[in-house]
Amino acid sequence: MRSMMLIGMVLVCALVPAAFAAEPPPKAPESQPAPADSVRAAELRIYDAELARAYEAEARRQQEETQARLQDLRAKIRAMTGRTDVSADGLRKLVQTLEEQREALELDEAGAQARKAALEDALKAAAQNAAKSVEGDTALRELRKVVDMREAQLSRMVKLNQTGAAPQSDIEAAEAELAQAKVNLALRQHQAALDQGVDGMSALNRDLVNLTIAEAERMARLEFIKRRLDKLGEAMPLLDDLDGLQGRLQRDQAAADFAADKAKLAQWKAAHKSQDRVDFTTTAPATR
Fold it and tell me: What is the mean pLDDT of the chain?
């Protein structure tokens, strides 16, 4: 009995260390990881967001300042030129068009002056020829004598009628004869004028009148164009400034939009606790 108890105690002593040896040793406690969003990283993200907003505000301020300068310059050019469209290209094209119109009118005026001088010479020569021909017309001289005789006869009849020596019917007959003599003279003068080409002189006179009217219209147009070019000439030196401000406004717009994108990116990084910093060394893309 005692021997069996001894055998049991030996078996227990042999099995207990083996059981403890089979169990794994307890693990050592793991160290806690460092927090990803450290205080320093949070401060940097806030700094980046504030810096991005400051960049955007400055870019927008610069854009508004350039816009205001451009508006002031456009208003000044409008006052000088009297035009609503004061784009540099539009004003340059207008000046070119007006100068071309002025040259065309001046060319027309030179031709018209030459034609006018020729017409005046032709009319003068025709009038001299007509006068010589009329002076040499025997029929006209005789008809004028008849008219003079009929006027003298009528005068005598009036005096005789006043003394009672001639009836009223004699006065009426003398008046009728005078009227007929004047009609005959007028008909002969008309025929003589036709013979001497007075109709041609009338045509020349009509051409001269038309030229004079056209000249007045042309000179009025030239004067208007001259005044317009004078006003535009005063504004032309400002067009280079206008081009410069328009180009600068485009660059300021691009810079402001670029800064706005940077600000949005910085806010997103701050909201999502990103470890990446915003790159402020890059600039807005160049604009033409």
Answer: 78
Provide the b/e sequence for 25-41 (b: ≥16 CB within 10 Å): eeeeeeeeeeeeeeeee
Could you tell me if 94 and 81 are in contact, meaning their C-beta atoms sit under 8 angstroms apart? no
Alpha-carbon distance of 139 to 148, in angstroms, equals 14
The phi, psi pair for 167, rounded to 5°, reads: -75, 170
Instruction: Calculate mean pLDDT across residues 41-59.
Output: 82
The total of other beta-carbon atoms located within 10 Å of residue 159's CB is: 11
User: Which one, of 235, 228, 230, 234, lies nearest residue 74 by Cα?
Assistant: 235
For the four alpha carbons of 37, 41, 47 and 50, in that order, the dihedral sign comes to negative
pLDDT digits 0-9 by tens, 124-137: 877 777 666 656 56
Neighbours of 236 (CB within 10 A): 16
Name the pTM for this structure.
0.49
- Length, in residues, of the chain: 288
To 10 degrees, what angle do helices 39-81 and 239-271 make? 160
Least Cα distance to 217 among 125, 112, 81 occurs for 112
Measured CA to CA in angstroms, residue 104 lies from 66, 91, 107, 210 at distances of: 41, 20, 5, 19
Taking the C-alpha atoms of residue 11 and residue 18, their distance in angstroms, rounded to an integer, is 11
In this predicted structure, the answer to whether residue 108 has a pLDDT above a threshold of 60 is: yes
Burial class (CB in 10 A: 0-12, 13-18, 19+), 252: buried
Instruction: State which amino acid sits at residue 150.
Output: R
Residue 13 has pLDDT above 80, yes or no: no
AA letter at 89: D
- Other beta carbons within 10 Å of 208: 16
Helices then strands (H, E): number in the chain?
A: 7, 0
